[in-house]
Design a protein that fits this description.
733 residues; alpha+beta; 4 domains; two-stranded antiparallel ribbon; 61% helix
Length: 733
Amino acid sequence: MAVPVPANNVIRFPEGVRGALVDVDHPGVLTEARDLMGCKLRDAFRSVLPRVEEELLSKGDVACGRAQRVLFYHTGEAIHAKAPQLEGALLAKWSALFTQACRASNKGRRGAASSPPQELQLVDFGAMDEELVVKAIAGSLRSQCDEGLFAIGRRLAFLSGEPEGSLPIEHLIAESLGGAFEDAGLVGKAKLEILQLMERHAVDVFGPTIDDLNAFLIGRGVLPQLSRTCSPSPNQPRNATDPGKPAESADLFALLQELVRPPQVSAGTGGASVGSGAGCGPSTGVSMGGASPAGMAVAMEQVMASLDTLQRAVPVQTAAALMDNVLRQFHSSDAGQNLDYLHSVTVDIVATLFDFIFDDASVADPIKALVARMQIPVLKVAMLDKTFFSSKSHPARRLLDGISRAAVRCGPQAGHDNPLYARVAEIVERLQNEFSQDTELFDTLCIELEAFLESQEAAADAHAVNAAPLVAEQERYELAAAAADHALVGWLAMPLPSAVTDLLDNEWRKLLVRHSMDGDNAAWEAAMDTVSELVASVDIPSDVPSRKRLAARLPTLVRRICNGLGRLEMADDRRLALIDALFSVHAAVLRGTAPPIVTPRPVLPVAEPVPVSLAREQVVRGETQIERISLAGANELPPSRDRADVLSLVGSLQRGDWVEFANPESGPLRYRLSWISPQRGILLFTTSQSPRAISVTPNALALQIERGEAILMPPEPMFDRAVNRALQKLKAA
């Protein structure tokens, strides 16, 4: 019995025949393919537009500055209003680009070579950014849907009269998206923001359309036997690809193969590895059951049976004693020694990637112990389906990504009492007991884990809903207080009577703060005019006419002061005392007698820089608890080269990122960034594990990172980090 593997996902061995039915109506099928793909793209586009709209509005909620908020809000509203127009524009653009590409396919490079040289022009950086994003969308599709794009490109080129050519369908899709927004009137920054969000959804939304079109063409008899050989011989040189960019490489498996390739290949062994050492290189390359498909199927069944036995034998791991990589044990077993070269390399690659995961300091040991039990199931998936390495949407990869998200939330001290840990442990146990060769189990478990993680995020967001208004209110007060201090600092530096200084430094400052928080600019200006008149009123008049003019103005001035004080909640005796003191001052001024003057507070220069420290404040409002962290007595950090990098890192944080905060009492705790204030960028962190929220200014967080009191958790999933580290090691070799 053959191993049930999806036909579109297997790495096929070379076939001698690759052709198509001779009676295919090429032009008719091309037209059908164009129209079918257009409808599929339109439907996919329709499904993703509400998501993009919601994300734009969410970005507007947390944007810093009015211009940014207006951009996001207006763009989101425009998408909603122009949805039908956008769908029509996409369909028209796709049809035009598809037809143009088919007509030009037989010209190849000759058309480009005959084009006249263009004159140098000024660079339009906005257009350049849009072009880069369009290329990024195409690159995402290429990296995740490479096999499907290869097949569809060859089939469409065949229909266009170019049997050995290939149509760049991913570029047509990306350019159709860009052109649709342009035709609908969404240009400039709005278009750029939309395209950047579209890039995040491109694979999930438009990837299935590629499979649908391939299925249609196969049904029409277009190259039904088309295959792609993806298993280079051991002696074949590696393709010159930058290993530092795995997402843009269609040959990720081939690159990783280089990492585990033995250093020497002995001639006369048919590519067998020699001296691989420590079980790290491929085995002797013995063919699985011979070259015939039947023999290979039987051999694969034997390998899977051995892996099933080993999977059931893997014990429950503990954080204190992680067992050795079980894949190394399998590789040295009889079944592992009899693998052909390709599958032997697969074992080595997967084992190496798990080694990197086990060495990942950001993953807690208890989580590593759970991940260790997934080695055999993951290996079986990788041996059956090589798209496991190249496709981030692969069910096994998605499950590993979900576990990585859980690992970030668990923190370094995760134990059996942690709900996230318990959920991951349950999923791993099911995978260990139920998985054989059907990857649908990965899909099921992934959906369950994602639902649980979303419920945890919802709990963290619930804390943010209660805490964010308090943080925003406190921020508005601090900004208003700073504005009031700035407005009064010059007046208070003047030699004034004590009654005037007392009024300005206390009640009138509070009045300015209130006007600022209310956003009442007119009242603010009126209050500052009153300050100017009050200060002028304590100057002794130089002559009798001046004294008469002052006496005529004083009733209006006093009435304005009383009205201002009336807006404050203050005791009557305090109000009467202030008015009486001002009456005494003005009476002395009208008599020509100078009232007692308060010496202004001197501004002493700071001889030496004061060490920067953190100020912490506990805020409790009902059931809401907030720890406010800011710089003590300073708003800015002293500049330095290293500090600039840290500040840039903090400035790049987005909602959903995680930070680990040191806690001497309970140990390190990990919090999710749930809200960013639009005014000063204050960061609000919450977690489902604690009702306490953390509000921290960007400068304070940068200082914490410098001191090792806070650590930014890597947003990249642990499996992707393992791949990148492997490729970095390869690049450095």
